[in-house]
Specification:
By secondary structure, the protein is an alpha/beta fold. Helices cover 55% and strands 13% of the residues. Strand 1, helix 1 and strand 2 form a beta-alpha-beta unit.
Length: 220
């Protein structure tokens, strides 16, 4: 009898969970044992069901997903985590790997790529795309791995803001793009400057542009 890896699906969109259930129902090596729509429900389900792999959407409310990852690594280290996200892997994969997730796959990928990532994580391996893997290897070989460290301090939303700053968007445009108030955008910009040791808005723009150029140079 084929061993079946037990899974918990964590996503705040029921239609996404339903789609994943449909996909996984046809896989003989996986068994979905539970679902959750937010972090508290996910923690309760992990404690009760002991899934081997948690498939986690990164876009839970606010920074909820990041806090959930920390809680899972601290209280349920045996559960492996595969992040399934709409966010650009180049922006977030390194930080999340450092937090202890076992893999990252984007929602835009074909179902077969998601299943490949899930099987690798279930087997105890780490999964990222070939592009991210090549980038990490290139940084280590060139001695430039430290370039990622300042950004590791930033939250998901702060990274969204710096990405749009790099594209030349102002506060009002960023607010519209991210569906938040200009006041919140300004708060994120201040936080980014403080975390990165930048003294002015102009310094932030320069840093963002250099960072974007580095992403392009790494094959983004």
């Amino acid at each position: 009898m084929t061993h079946r890896t037990t899974l918990l699906l964590v996503d705040d969109h029921p239609v996404v969970r339903e789609g994943l259930n449909f996909l996984l129902a046809g896989q003989p090596d996986f068994l979905v044992v539970g679902e959750a729509g937010d972090a508290p429900a996910a923690l309760e389900a992990v404690a009760r069901l002991h899934p081997q792999v948690v498939v986690l959407d990164l876009t839970l409310d606010g920074e909820e997903a990041i806090a959930l990852i920390a809680d899972l690594r601290r209280n349920h280290p045996q559960a492996r985590i595969l992040v399934l996200s709409m966010h650009d892997e180049m922006l977030y994969a390194e930080r999340l790997l450092a937090l202890g997730v076992s893999g990252y796959v984007m929602k835009q990928e074909a179902p077969g790529e998601f299943l490949r990532a899930l099987r690798r994580v279930a087997a105890g391996d780490v999964h990222v795309s070939e592009a991210v893997s090549a980038r990490l290897i290139s940084r280590v070989r060139s001695g430039r791995a430290s370039l990622a460290s300042p950004l590791a301090q930033l939250t998901v939303r702060e990274r969204d803001v710096i990405r749009l700053v790099a594209k030349g968007l102002g506060t009002q445009e960023i607010a519209r793009a991210l569906d938040m108030s200009p006041k919140t955008v300004d708060s994120h910009r201040r936080n980014v400057r403080e975390k990165l040791g930048l003294t002015s808005a102009r310094d932030l723009v320069r840093y963002a542009v250099r960072w974007a150029a580095d992403q392009d140079g790494q094959g983004r």
